[in-house]
Amino acid sequence: MSGRRTRSSAGTPPIPRPDPDSLPPGAGGPSRASGQSAAGDGVPNLLKYVTGMDPLKPAGSPVSISEKGNRLLMTWPVNEEAVGISLKVEASSNLKDWTESYEVTVPGEFHDVPEIGAGGAERRFLRLAVMLDVPGE
């Protein structure tokens, strides 16, 4: 998750800034970092934080993708108390090159831009990127 970290001003609710010390006491050592998984389930602590999940409880991805009309719709739960976070959706046609990036402007959902299927993209993959806002950037 590289690139400039910006904050959406279009309706994004404030989210408390994550702090490794805010994780429960059982999540010690390197597993407390935002990009790590304290529960060992592969879901990063920062994603669990922004979606309101317990970082110590194993879980699957909180992100769902469905088809709405001829476009993909990505949804996820929102932790209304989380701040200091920026979200963007990245898109790919091959799961290798993530060339497109869209700022999330509506908390908890993203309506993909290009159509899929007949006349549109044959293959389309989306992923949610969660970043800590860095002061001064």
* Approximate helicity band: under 10%
Quick check: average pLDDT? 77
Strand proportion, as a percent range, falls in 15-25%
Shape: globular
Number of helices: 1
The unreliable regions are: 1-17, 24-29
First-last Cα distance: 15 Å
What sequence of helices (H) and strands (E) makes up the elements? HEEEEEE
Oligomer: single chain
How large is the radius of gyration?
16 Å
Strand order of the biggest β-sheet: 1-2-5
User: What structural class do helix, strand and pairing data support?
Assistant: mainly beta
Report the strand count.
6
How would you sum up the major sheet?
3 strands, antiparallel
Structure, briefly:
With 137 residues, the protein is mostly beta strands.
Q: What features would you highlight for this structure?
A:
single chain; 137 residues; three-stranded antiparallel sheet; 24% strand
Walk me through what this model shows.
Helices cover 5% and strands 24% of the residues. β1 (64-68) and β2 (71-75) form a beta hairpin. Residues 1-17 and 24-29 have low confidence and may be disordered. With 137 residues, the protein is mainly beta. Strands 1-2-5 form a three-stranded antiparallel β-sheet, with no helix packed on it. It has a three-stranded antiparallel β-sheet with strand order 4-3-6. It starts with 44 loop residues before the first helix and ends in a 5-residue tail after the last strand. The protein is globular, with a radius of gyration of 16 Å.
